[in-house]
Amino acid sequence: MPKPPDNPYDLSRFDLDDILGTINEEVRERFGQGEVADHIPDLAGVGKDRFGMALALLDGQVHEVGDSRHRFSIQSMSKVHTLTLALKAVGDELWQRVDREPSGDPFNSLIQLEHENGIPRNPFMNAGALVTADVILSNYDNPEAMLLKFLQERAGDPDIGEDEKLASSERESGYRNIALANFIRSFKNLHNDPDAVLDFYARQCSIGMHCVDLARSVQYLADSGCCPNSGEQVTSAGGAKRINAMMMTAGTYDAAGDFAFYVGLPAKSGVSGGIVAVVPHVMGLCVWYPGLDEKGNSKLGRYALHRFTEITDLSVF
Questions:
Q1: pTM (2 d.p.)
Q2: pLDDT of 131-143, one tens digit each?
Q3: Which residues are part of the catalytic machinery?
Q4: How far is it, in rounded angstroms, from Cα 252 to Cα 214?
Q5: Architecture of the domain defined by 11-312
Q6: What residues contact residue 189 under an 8 Å CB cut-off, 6+ apart?
């Protein structure tokens, strides 16, 4: 076996642009794999002929390839940021209302709520994200504007905004989410009106960002809670550790174990085809390819991240 480098965080041993170029070529040879999300009408027409990838290093360097500046809705990747804000508001009290365990079930499952008295298994399932949204509604003035500002500051991009048409499409087609919200409310684990919670949740998912934005937006999780763009201590070092842990164990739904085995990074996926990931002490990164696997994760995005950690050996294991 080759000897490991003296400093595993020294990126000077890599030509990152060349590595991204190689991954881009390999992914584009595989275009067409997976199926686009069709449970949200405005996502159903997206073609499987786009791929972007971006690395945002803690020293400010950005390396990118392909459609890395094409905006798409961040969907469930927003749950990383709302979890951060909910923990900032109520701290460990959050864990009295949502658990920290992998689900083993699809992201929009209702099954466990019945057995576990309305306590979602983790904050990245839709049920858990609704509880997180409820916490934000209870603790922040003008929560929608606050979330947008939070994302703009993390990414260093003031142009980040919501897609009103997509938010409406999500809200109108989200029958399972409506059921989840009302079911959780029946256990008194939603404190706000379910419609208000559902509206906020649809809006957070409809926010448009690109790979560079998203890679920058999670840099604080690679830097002990400090945002390189703003210099703000977004969360404590312990908070960053815990959010990364949740991403590793639950960020790719009921494929989290296989994703950890195959990629080896804390990550959060979204049904628009994005996956945002963290290399602790090194970078935030994001991939985007709209075709999804059977678990709802970007099929070629997962492949791209696998190839990146395989080539660089930059994983947490």
A1: 0.95
A2: 999 999 999 999 9
A3: 76, 79, 201, 253, 271
A4: 16
A5: 3-Layer(aba) Sandwich (3.40)
A6: 97, 118, 119, 131
